Amino acid sequence: MRDAIQKSGIGSSSLHRVWSTTEPEAAALAVFDKGGFNLEAREGILVCDCGGGTVDIATYYVTDIAPTLYFQQVTTAVGAKCGGAAIDSRFYQLLATKLGEAFDGLLLSNIRPGSRFMDYFEAAKHTFDGEGEKTWYLPLNIDGTEVDPAFFDRRRRCIILRSQDL
């Protein structure tokens, strides 16, 4: 990485400062930089960085807050491949199970990341809180006479996604 940084010209000036950090530490710095936290010295902080591919967790101890925030890592950062991409993969598995052959006939452009359908699923993921029963309607034009009407509304042309599905 150092070679790539040097070749890019970053760090060639005395005004440049280059350092690297772990993903959870970078997440903590980004959050604390936004402000709005009443941090005190001698407090513990748990950082959970839920990304697209992984979820990384680390614990930090605030050693000082003025004039600059200083903290030290208490636990080694741990991560798992259970981020948004893993959730999407499980969602595709659910679709394949519930839709059967109708799922196999779908155009990739209709269900790929960034499609209208997946944008609706992203919104469902972001509003899912595990509390109570919610229902989301995800627009998808499919053909299939054998599709479960509890999972697909033919008239509205949409998948019916319930909290228990998530």
TrEMBL record:
InterPro entries in UniProt: ATPase_NBD
SUPFAM superfamilies xref list: Actin-like ATPase domain
CDD domains recorded: ASKHA_NBD_HSP70
Family matches, as PANTHER family: ALPHA KINASE/ELONGATION FACTOR 2 KINASE (PTHR14187), HSP70 FAMILY PROTEIN (AFU_ORTHOLOGUE AFUA_4G14040) (PTHR14187:SF81)
Name assigned to this protein: Hsp70 protein
Native organism taxonomy: Eukaryota, Fungi, Dikarya, Ascomycota, Pezizomycotina
